[in-house]
Amino acid sequence: LTGNADGVRAFCQGLRDWKELFEETDFKFTDGLEHKKRFKALTVRKVDELVAYGLEGAYAPSLSRNAAVNLEADEYHKMMADPDAVIIDVRNVYESAIGHFQPPKQGAELVI
């Protein structure tokens, strides 16, 4: 989502005011992003999968429960150094092109 800082924050607050579900949403804000790194447009639509895994039925990840663990930056960097960890980057090509954190040699495996 791209826009001026006040507008983006107001949009996120509007989502929280609209549905209790968004009270738990961890919105990430980046102020002062270079124009060329901003998204060109926003499309909002209802989808069956948030990330298109292409899996059906019981194989598809549940949207009603989330077993993911939210890591703070220092914890994430520690996990990147763990050779038994696997980091799966599920962002789209545009997001990946902006950048990613490269695990150190002998660290986690990065799957893009």
Textual characterization of the structure:
The protein has three helices and two strands, in the order ααβαβ. It has a two-stranded parallel ribbon. 0% of the residues are buried. The two termini are 22 Å apart. The chain is globular, with a radius of gyration of 17 Å. Helix content is 25%, strand content 5%. It is mainly alpha-helical and 112 residues long. It has helices at residues 5-18, 73-80, 93-98, and strands at 86-88, 109-111.
SSE string, helices as H and strands as E: HHEHE
What is the end-to-end distance? 22 Å
Largest sheet: 2 strands, parallel
Strand order of the largest sheet: 1-2
Can you count the helices? Answer: 3
Compute the average pLDDT.
80
Assembly state of the chains shown: single chain
What's the quick description here?
By secondary structure, this protein is mostly helical.
SSE topology sketch:
Layout: H1 5-18, H2 73-80, E1 86-88, H3 93-98, E2 109-111
Name some characteristics of this structure.
112 residues; mainly alpha; two-stranded parallel ribbon; 3 helices; 25% helix
